[in-house]
Amino acid sequence: MNLQEALTRCSTLVIESADGIGRSDLITELAEHGFLIRCDADRLHHVDPTRPYRELFAEPGRLVLSGSIIHELVYGPLLRGESRVSWIQALDFAESVAERDGALIHLTAPRHPPRIAPTAFSEATDAYTRVFRSLSQHVPVVTLDAGDLDRPSPAHGPAHREVAGNKTKLTVG
């Protein structure tokens, strides 16, 4: 699945990337395509991290959110030596996204890491690759190079990139 297919077929998109790779511009642009932004990405329920997502997924409409469960799977072990999210909870989350006709969007680093990349950037990007490979067995995953989002489409000038056929353009500048 690519981003164009995800925009057409999905009602839920979860955007995630290593720290230092911006997600907010893509999330904002997806909101302009009818996706509602719904989630405080930094808050995990202390007993059941998937609970806020189950509540969100019960709402109608198209949703875009940042995947703090995935973030915790990667950064918990890197920063604290353990994750507050179990693999069972992460797989439950992935299956819930899939059941809501959703996909995970994995933003990867451009050819050159961001200038303000954390010290664990290389370890985090490797961990994200492993996590998304595992989750892709339960939910569609779209991998996008963040550098490609900054490159203009030749036919649409410096601020536009075509993502959903000829009618819809996603502004990414």
What does this structure look like?
The chain has 173 residues and is an alpha/beta fold. The chain has one domain (3-171): P-loop containing nucleotide triphosphate hydrolases (Rossmann fold). 39% of the residues lie in helices and 19% in strands. It has helices spanning 3-9, 24-31, 51-57, 68-80, 87-99, 121-135, 146-150, and strands spanning 12-17, 36-37, 63-66, 102-108, 141-145, 160-164, 168-171. The strands form two sheets. It has a five-stranded parallel β-sheet with strand order 2-3-1-4-5, with helices on both faces. The longest helix has 15 residues, at 121-135. The chain is globular. The chain starts with a helix and ends with a strand. Residues 151-173 have low confidence and may be disordered.
Brief digest:
The protein is of the alpha/beta class and 173 residues long. It is 39% helix and 19% strand. Helix 4 (68-80) crosses helix 6.
Number of strands: 7
The dominant shape is: globular
Averaged pLDDT: 79
Strand content: 15-25%
| CA-based gyration radius | 16 Å
Instruction: Tell me the domain tally.
Output: 1
- Estimated helix fraction: 25-40%
Biased composition (Basic and acidic residues): 148-164
Region (Disordered): 146-173
